[in-house]
Amino acid sequence: MKYISTRGEAAPLSFTQTLLAGLAPDGGLYLPQDYPRLSQEEIAGFAGRSYAEVAEAVISPYVADEIAAPALRGMIEAAYASFRHPAVAPLAQLDDNLFTLELFHGPTLAFKDLAMQLLARLVEHALHARGQRATIVGATSGDTGAAAIEAFSGLRQVDVFILYPHGRVSEVQRRQMTTVGADNVHAIAIEGSFDDAQAAVKALFNNPPLREKLNLCGVNSINWARILAQTVYYFTSAVALGAPYRPVSFVTPTGNFGDVFAGWIAKRMGLPVDRLVIATNSNDILPRALASGAYALGEVRPTQSPSMDIQVSSNFERLLFEASGRDAPTIRAKMAQLAQSRSFDIDAGALNAIRADFDAFSVSEEQTSQEIARLWREARYLCDPHSAVGVSAARREALSRGARTPLVVLGTAHAAKFPDAIEAATGLRPELPPHLAGLMERPEHFSVLPNDQGEIERFIRAAVSGETGREPQKAAS
Ligand SMILES: *Cc1c(COP(=O)(O)O)cnc(C)c1O
């Protein structure tokens, strides 16, 4: 299987090359040359199989013969053995025909673990086979960083640098990044916003000598292997509700468009998905784009669902590429326009293709709090704010389309990750699960750096070459 760039000016790569590259050198995102289709019998056969077995069936056609089957199986089994629920991603019923897919039973309590636990093992395996080391870099508004640090800590072939906005992540999120204590892990608090952190990471990749010298590897959701790993739970949950004989709709709380795009892939592979519903908080660029056809950047507004406080929804480029018939020159033109004037118009044909699969709703802060309170009152279910955005959108979808098919809301985080929002809505403060019990007492290690590219690069170079160790600091709060 070969992977091509959405901007059409990068050489096709193999699965492993794509895994290690992250962003394509032409600025585009990688996609497989085609999507393997699973037959109805194959999908029906997923019933009663373990999560790891389904994952192997869904993922292996994309890896083809690049990784030997027993090695791939071993990595998949190890990745999902770290989850604390035997089903890995269980369903819970919230209302008539309304379900939530709990994706927060992994080590860091957010859905990012489902992809990151596997990604880390794949990266380590690929580096080992090549006798290489790599430098993992990522920007995070909280959950990606925690998942990456947990998954990559202690691995011998990698150094990990995670940049997060100083003082702007929740205490649980920060402590998950700063208390791991592995020598190969560096949590860096940038004196700036998430956008500044992300811009700094992109600038590292856009520095070819540095990229090559440090063998940079990106773990944000532009990495194809993350999207691929996320297609698996669309299959397991749909089959549990009657697929392939009964269609299912999904509602996905969305920021960078990675998780919901994974659902589109599952549909392309043959899963009978009726609607894919994009649920956003008040950062509503996607619902506006689907309604008007204009993809226009606004200002980022902080909300109680911070992992979706995003304007530039990177993976939307992948959908646009597919919806416009894989027309790379068009994508290049649209992205150039976006960089220049902060907006572009989606062509009519592409917009129709997108609307054929997707609906989109934006959920206000008040609606989010009301939904958290309602779920606690009516179903005795504690729901984190991101997932609550999804449930609120699901109720609107059911009203506008009629509840023809089961609606599955992706439960993207554990309520205990965002205790303040839950307490404000329900009066109840959710407790961390037992495996994180000591989190609030463990010593923290992180470095505070100014929002300055030169300083960030110097820090990373020095740490990789072993010139400076980590400098333990006390948390400011
Ligand atoms: C990352 C994240 C999201 C958004 O996922 P995307 O793939 O960026 O759309 C939603 N909820 C939580 C809790 C997250 O951590």
Termini Cα gap: 49 Å
Under the CATH scheme, which architecture of the domain at 87-109 and 226-426 would be assigned?
3-Layer(aba) Sandwich
Q: Low-confidence parts, pLDDT < 50 over ≥5 residues?
A: 469-477
In the CATH scheme, the class of the domain at 87-109 and 226-426 would be Alpha Beta
The helical percent reads 40-55%
Helix count, DSSP H or I runs of 4 or more residues: 19
GO molecular function, one term: threonine synthase activity
Catalytic activity: O-phospho-L-homoserine + H2O = L-threonine + phosphate
Enzyme class: lyase
Domain Threonine synthase N-terminal: 2-80
Describe the structure in your own words:
It catalyses: O-phospho-L-homoserine + H2O = L-threonine + phosphate. Keywords: Amino-acid biosynthesis, Lyase, Pyridoxal phosphate. Its EC number is 4.2.3.1. Pathway: Amino-acid biosynthesis. It is an enzyme of class 4 (lyase). The chain is α/β, with parallel strands linked by helices. The chain is 45% helix and 16% strand. The protein has a six-stranded mixed beta sheet with strand order 3-4-14-9-10-13, sandwiched between helices. A five-stranded parallel beta sheet has the order 8-5-6-7-15, with helices on both faces. It is globular. It has a domain of 224 residues: Rossmann fold (3-Layer(aba) Sandwich), CATH 3.40.50.1100.
Task: Please provide a brief summary of the model.
By secondary structure, this protein is of the alpha/beta class.
